[in-house]
Design a protein that fits this description.
Helix content of chain A: 40-55%
Largest interface: A-B, 12 and 11 residues
Structural class of chain A: alpha/beta
CATH superfamily of chain B: ACP-like
Largest sheet of chain A: 7 strands, parallel
Distance between the termini of chain A: 39 Å
Structural class of chain B: mainly alpha
Number of helices of chain B: 4
Largest sheet of chain B: none
Strand content of chain B: under 5%
Oligomer: heterodimer
Radius of gyration of chain A: 17 Å
Number of helices of chain A: 7
CATH architecture of chain B: Orthogonal Bundle
Radius of gyration of chain B: 13 Å
CATH topology of chain B: Non-ribosomal Peptide Synthetase Peptidyl Carrier Protein, Chain A
Helix content of chain B: 55-70%
Number of strands of chain B: 0
Strand order of the largest sheet of chain A: 3-2-1-4-5-6-7
């Protein structure tokens, strides 16, 4: 049976790319997003839901359990960014960012681990950001939410180690996706200058790190965050 | 319903104790201590036990319950102490979820 991988946020951007990539590698890919997904492949199943809705998410995991009987890999990709001066950031934005980036990450990790513990195997990958170690101005809430993801990564890695489930994070540099489309070019250029290797990240850079984390040989790699670009 | 819950508890207990290579020679009845001073489950086994039992109950009843809820955690007498206390607690949760 092929590996079953669940990727959140597959309707566009990195999640969409990852879904297509793992389909091309013969994985069974399960995706979810608030919107429909354009991927048509016999080995792809899409769940249209709000990742913050606990009941809907639990229902989805119930369907995964009854249909596939297992889950090998979770990629917690879905996330939202907010780039604004703290004094101009509304509480509505604060709550949305924390809910999507932190609470939903926790919920998906918890429910995935419930499935994985039975098989005594699992790989969970989180997305964090270089904005956290760089403490970027204008990204107080986004960077803080990803700092929480770093803590979730480390603590889950300890709590799940007895089930042979590893939990790791990748911190991409700016990549040309919707997430940074509203950020001024000068800000992005400044950020790239802070990297050891001064260029945009690519989808291939991300896949490279994820493949390392999900490899069966990486069973001694957990609780780690790899930042791209040299931060 | 009580008898059915009891059966699911015993089946899950067998599964988890065997999977985790823990002592599975203890006699299983309503007085069997699960997670108490001399219970058969350690903290890790309790996690697996509750997760697997939750899945079993949800599958057999086509419902979604969470066993380790805030309510369960804040009860004066933990529902996870004995098989009997867990049966009583689950019967309540299942019937509330169904209604």
């Amino acid at each position: 049976m092929s590996k079953i991988i669940l990727i959140t946020g597959t309707s566009k951007g990195i999640g969409h790319y990852l879904a297509n990539y793992y389909l091309s590698r013969n994985f069974t890919v399960l995706g979810c997003s608030r919107n429909n997904c354009s991927i048509t492949n016999d080995k792809y199943a899409h769940f249209k839901l709000d990742i913050n809705n606990e009941n809907n998410v639990i229902e989805m995991f119930g369907k995964i359990r009854t249909t596939y009987g297992k889950l090998d890999i979770l990629i917690n990709n879905a996330g939202i960014a907010s780039m604004n001066h703290s004094l101009l950031t509304t509480m509505q934005t604060v709550n949305q960012v924390l809910s999507t980036n932190v609470s939903a990450n926790f919920l998906f990790t918890r429910e995935s681990a419930k499935l994985m513990q039975k098989a005594n195997f699992g790989r969970i990958i989180n997305f964090t950001t270089v904005a956290t170690p760089l403490n970027l101005e204008g990204e107080s809430i986004y960077a803080s939410s990803k700092a929480a993801v770093n803590s979730l990564t480390k603590i889950f890695s300890k709590e799940l180690s007895n089930f042979s489930i590893t939990v790791n994070s990748i911190g991409p540099t700016p990549i040309k996706t919707d997430l940074i489309k509203s950020v001024p070019k000068s800000k992005i250029d400044d950020l790239i200058q802070k990297q050891a290797i001064k260029r945009f990240g690519t989808f291939e850079d991300i896949v490279n790190v994820i493949n390392f984390f999900i490899s069966s040989k990486s069973d001694f790699i957990t609780g780690q965050t790899i930042y791209l670009g040299g931060i | 319903m009580k008898r059915n819950i009891e059966k699911m508890i015993y089946a899950t207990l067998d599964e988890v104790l065997n999977d985790l290579n823990l002592d599975n020679t203890v006699e299983k009845n309503l007085d069997t201590e699960l997670y108490s001073g001399s219970g058969v489950l350690d903290s890790l086994a309790l996690v697996s036990f509750l997760v697997n039992l939750e899945q079993k109950i949800n599958d057999e009843n086509s419902i979604n319950i969470t066993i380790a809820s805030d309510r369960a955690m804040s009860m004066k007498h933990s529902p996870f102490n004995t098989v009997k206390s867990l049966v009583i607690y689950l019967e309540k949760v299942i019937s509330e979820t169904k209604n």
